[in-house]
Structure formats: C-alpha cells, structure tokens
Design a protein that fits this description.
With about 625 residues, the protein is an alpha+beta fold. It is built from 24 helices and 13 strands. The chain has helices at about 5-10, 25-30, 55-65, 80-100, 105-135, 150-160, 180-195, 210-220, 250-260, 270-275, 285-295, 315-325, 340-355, 365-375, 380-385, 390-400, 405-420, 425-460, 470-480, 490-500, 505-515, 525-545, 580-600, 605-625; strands at about 15-20, 40-45, 70-75, 135, 145, 225-230, 230-235, 265, 300-305, 310, 330-335, 555-565, 575-580. It has a 5-stranded mixed sheet. The model is unreliable at about 625-635 (pLDDT under 50).
C-alpha cells in the first residue's frame, strides 16, 4: 500500500502481489498492464521445479530487463516454503468443497476446517518471511532487499513518479474506483444540484446530508464554487484564491485535449480515460463531479451535446445520462479568430436589438448561439412554417431551424449564407452579414403581428367599420344580434366580436374559428381559407343586423332607398343601402350643410341644389351598379 502517497493526495494506490513459477515470469512481464485498481505488480518467483536459488536469480535478472517501471520481481531463498504450504491449503480446500461425505459428518467438517485454517495461517507466515527476505529487482535500478514494511515506501515512490500530477482530493466516500451504493446515491444528488442550483450558495444544500459533505470536501474546500457578482458560479481552479487541490493541471490538460479535437464533440468517457491515466490517476468515483465542475467553469468555451445533439446547457437529465453512460454526453471546444469575434459581436448586438430581454448576452459563442436559437424558438408556430417571407429570411430561418451546433451555426452555415457562399472576413463584409441577420430576425419577429394586422383590417373593412372608430360601437352591434341567427358558427363569430378589443388575441380567435384550427396549427392555406370565411361571416353579420327586429332587438343600421329619374336616362335608377348608428352623426352634419345652403337661397336656387343632388346620386348609383356588383351584400331587401 502506498501509504504516504495516500496521506498526501487522498488517493489509495497499491501494488498487487503475484506468485508465479519461474517458467512463466518472462511471459507475465510482457503482458504486464496496470489495471484500473492496482498501479503495478510485485511478482514473487516460486521455484516450482526445484530450481536452485542462483539459477532463479540469473533468470529473474534476464526477465526484468526491459520490464515497465511498475513491475518489480522478487526472489527469496525461502520461496520454496510457500509452495509447500500452498499445496497443503489447496488440498484441504478441495476436500472441503468436493467431498459429499462431509455433509453428514459434523466432526469431520470441523476437523477439515481446522486443518485448512492452520494451513492458511502457515501460508501467510511463510509469505511474510518470503517478503522480508526477498531481493527486489527493477529495470534500470539496483537490486534491493526490503522488509515488508519498506515495500510501502517503495509503493509510494512508484505512485509519486507515475502520478506526478495527481490532484489532492480528500474524500474517502468517492475518491476510489468503486464507491458504495450510498456514496453513489449522494453523488447523484450532488450532480443534480450542480447543474440546477449553481447560482445558489452551497448549491442550495442545507444541513449536512451526505451530498453536502461531498460538496464541502470536493468543491468548496478546493475553491471551485465562488460568488461572482450577485450569483455563485463554478470557476477554473486557481483563478480566485489558491488551488489547494492542484486541479489546474487537470483543467489545462483537458483544455488541450478538447482544443486538439475541436473539429468534433469529445465524449466525457474519453476525458475520464485521460484523467484515469498517468500523470493524474484520478479515481473513477470523482470523475462525474469534476467533469460537471469543469464543464460549468468553461461554459464560455464549450458546447454541450447529448447523444451528439447540441444542448443549450446542462440540466438534471444530463446528470442522469452522465451517471448511466459517460459516452452519451460530449463537449466541443469553440475556437475564434478575429473575423469570427467581430461576427459574433455583430450577431450578439443584432439579437439584443430584436429581443431586449436578451440584452445581457455573455460574450461567448455558446451564449450568442443560445440567444439566437431562443429568438427562433420564441416565434409563433405559423412563422416557423410560413413561406410568405423574403427569400433571404427563409434561408436564415431554415438554418436556425436545423441548428444543432453553435460552432457550425455561427461560424460556418450562417456566415456562408449571409456572405454569399463564404464566411465574411473584412469589417465591411462582417457588417453587411450582421445587417442581413438583423433584417431577417426583425422580419421573423414581426411577421405574425403583420399577418394579424392584415386580418384585423379585413374584419373591420367587411363589417363597414371606419378606421379609428371606437371598438365599443362594434361590440354594441354584436351584442345587439347575439344568439339570434340560429347558426352556431355565426353565433361564435358574433360572440367574439362582442368582446372585441382589436388585439392580436381577438384576431387569433376569429381566424381560428374561420380556419377550424388553433393558431399553433395554421398553415398558409389555412389563412387563405380563413380570409374567405371571415368575409362570409361579415356578410352574414350585416344581413342579420337587418333582421334584428325579428329577435325583438333594436336596429343598429338604417335602410334607405333613393329613386332618381333624369331626362337623359331611359329608366329611373334606384339604390338601396344601409347606414349604421355610427354614421348617423356624419349624415346629419351633411344634412345641416345642405339645409343651410337651401335656406339661404331663392326658390330657383333650391331647385338647382336639388337637381345637383339628383345628378350626383345618379352618378354614384350608376357607378355602384356597374362597378361593385357585390355591394348587394349590404343592401336590404
């Protein structure tokens, strides 16, 4: 056991002791590999074929030549005793396991068990003697005779050399290869707190449950979680205060690894394998905790992936993925050149202008890409589907829709799209590219509102409501004829008008009724159908108003008819029309003007005015009949 190394680093390491025949020594050294638990091997040679001690020494020296540093060969003149007691212990164990006669003979079972215990005790004593008298050989080192106690110092020496950059992590629950079930349960809770409550002191952990103890010993003690501004954040070791755990080399090596593989996402399992290997030798139990701490502290330079699909951030589901299989979560390094930085800054400003709520976007590709995708995600479903956009905006929308990688989105697909096939390089090209992004985002953000405005104008026009008229008059007209048509869909249309405020929500309700679909399912064809249905509803609305008296309701419009016959026309012209209550005041104003003119003139003057009115009426009546045949929808029978 490497006791001193364990005391200094908190990581328990040891050398496996193996006994093997001299004939198998060379082959065993050739296939020597340190496992995930032991850091090396002490190979104790046993003369199974009666080899002399001198012959064993020569053969061992030849075999150890070229062996790895963590493989040590030991020979002892007392090694033959081990073989004798081992054979005896093996024989008694085989008797106990393979003799059915012992099942019904308690006395014999006790005797065999006692003899087996005695043989095992003798074997252990023989091994202790062999270890105390053995000479240990290492490649390139002088042969040494070490007592059993001195082997611990040798193990620490090997551990220090092999794991020179091992961090100092003092937690016996997790800093091991295979933590217990209870320790893993506490680790899972800690990981979820790390990704969901990073901004809270102590990650929101209160009291001293097991997960809080893990946080204090592995994170807080080592200065990985500190307060930045008004919130708490994970930071790079040593960037604030002293790096007590010596984790800075681990972070740097991970940075270098990801930077070298920046063309692809790197799985956490690959990172953990590097951490597990020399010169770090980090135990498996703490991999996930340090992995999440690293990812959160470097979020500005990393993109997160789950099963090779880009994720805007880590959440508790990612913690579960990491625990179950670290291959399912990946990280990718984001590298920026000067042109990319300018483009990134321009896009960040464009997004901030379109969405003021995203004004405080961090200066990083990941945060900018997240904000850009957030703008797209906040669009109404119809805007994400419609083809009624400019071609440039359609292309940018399609790129945002299929965005899975911030690197590819910001520095490949989007720049080539707005830069006409290649990424912009000069300041002018970058400015032009960001301008196109800004225009596209503005069009996407305002398209649904513009469509609602078109539908709103259609409703008001078909209902003969003047622009700027008070909404109360339309509500009063709708309330006057509510529930008298006998048509459920028309009644629903009238009910919506009775609550009309002119908002986009009102238009969504009316268009949804007309299209028989909620707004989230609209397509361009649905809107075309909705426009026709709205015009039909409006026509039925006006017609129903003409028969309000049938339902004992007050007429909100007034029917009039004019018949004019002039000498130049073969037949008299007639025209029927309706005037709403809102227009009566305007009609009275015109009447007052005409009456004033007639009152001030002579009888001949009055005739001239009447003739002029008849002439004007004939002209407009003729124009209406010839040019607006559909106007009959507002004429009362």
């Amino acid at each position: 056991m490497a006791k001193r190394h364990y005391h200094e680093t908190g990581s328990l390491r040891w050398l496996d002791v193996e006994l093997l025949p001299l004939s198998e020594l060379a082959q065993r050294i050739q296939r020597s590999r340190a496992g995930r638990e032991a850091m090396g091997s002490l190979l104790l040679v046993v003369p199974t074929e009666g080899e002399l001690h001198e012959v064993t020494c020569v053969a061992a020296k030849a075999a150890v030549n070229g062996a790895p540093e963590d493989v040590i060969v030991g020979i002892s003149p007392q090694a033959a005793r081990v073989l004798e007691f081992a054979r005896e212990a093996t024989a008694f164990e085989r008797i106990r396991e393979e003799s059915p006669e012992l099942a019904h003979d308690a006395v014999a079972r006790r005797e065999v068990t006692a003899r087996l215990s005695a043989a095992q005790s003798q074997l252990e004593n023989a091994l202790r003697v062999v270890l105390d008298t053995a000479t240990w050989m290492r490649h390139g080192r002088k042969d040494r005779r070490l007592s059993a106690g001195s082997l611990s110092a040798l193990a620490s020496e090997i551990a220090d050399a092999k794991y020179a950059s091992a961090p100092r992590l003092f937690n016996e629950l997790l800093n091991r290869v295979s933590p217990s079930t209870n320790a893993n349960a506490a680790k899972n809770l800690l990981l979820k707190a790390m990704v969901t409550k990073e901004d809270q002191p102590r990650l929101g952990l209160t009291g001293f449950p097991a997960e809080a103890g893990l946080f204090l010993s592995l994170i807080e003690r080592n200065g990985l979680h500190v307060k930045r501004g008004k919130a708490w954040r994970f930071i790079v070791p040593g960037s604030v205060g002293e790096d007590l755990a010596l984790l800075a080399p681990v972070w740097k090596a991970t940075d270098d690894m990801l930077r070298g593989e920046r063309q692809r996402p790197v799985a956490f399992s690959e990172i953990f394998e590097m951490w597990r290997s020399p010169p770090f030798g980090i135990k498996d139990g703490v991999h996930e905790v340090l992995g999440i701490a690293y990812a959160l502290s470097m979020r500005g330079r990393l993109a997160f992936y789950r099963s090779s699909i880009f994720q805007p951030g880590l959440n508790d589901l990612d913690a579960d993925y990491l625990i179950n299989d670290s291959r399912d979560l990946q990280l990718r390094w984001l590298e920026l050149d000067d042109a990319s930085k300018r483009l990134l800054a321009g896009i960040r400003v464009a997004v901030s202008e379109i969405s003021p709520s995203l004004d405080e976007i961090e200066d990083s590709p990941l945060e900018t890409a997240r904000a850009l995708v957030a703008v797209f995600d906040s669009l109404e479903p119809w805007t994400k589907r419609t083809g009624r956009l400019t071609s440039a905006t359609l292309e940018i929308r399609n790129v945002l829709r299929h965005a899975v990688d911030p690197n590819t989105l910001l520095f490949d697909e989007l720049p080539k799209l707005v830069g006409e096939g290649r990424a912009p390089e000069s300041r002018a090209e970058v400015a032009e590219a960001t301008g196109r992004v800004r225009v596209a985002l503005a069009e996407l953000r305002g398209r649904f509102a513009a469509m609602c405005s078109e539908l709103r104008a259609l409703v008001l026009r078909e209902l003969d409501v003047r622009p700027g008229a008070a909404t109360s008059s339309l509500r009063a007209r709708a309330e006057n004829i509510s529930e008298i048509s006998g048509d459920f869909r028309l009644n629903a249309f009238i009910a919506r008008l009775a609550r009309w405020t002119g908002s986009d929500e009102d238009i969504e309700g009316i268009a949804g009724l007309a299209a028989n679909k909620p707004a989230r399912d609209w397509t361009d064809a649905d809107l075309d159908q909705a426009k026709i249905e709205i015009a039909s509803f409006a026509q039925q609305f006006v017609r129903t108003e003409g028969f309000a008296r049938v339902g004992n309701r007050r007429d909100k419009s007034h029917a009039m008819a004019v018949v004019v016959g002039l000498g130049g026309q073969r037949t008299a012209l007639s025209h029927e029309f309706s005037v709403s209550d809102d227009d009566i005041a305007a009609v009275n104003d015109v009447v007052t003007i005409v009456e004033t003119a007639m009152a001030e003139g002579t009888p001949q003057r009055k005739n001239i005015i009447l003739a002029a009115l008849a002439e004007i009426s004939s002209r407009y009546m003729g124009a209406n009949v010839a040019r607006r045949p559909n106007e009959a929808k507002r004429i009362k029978a």
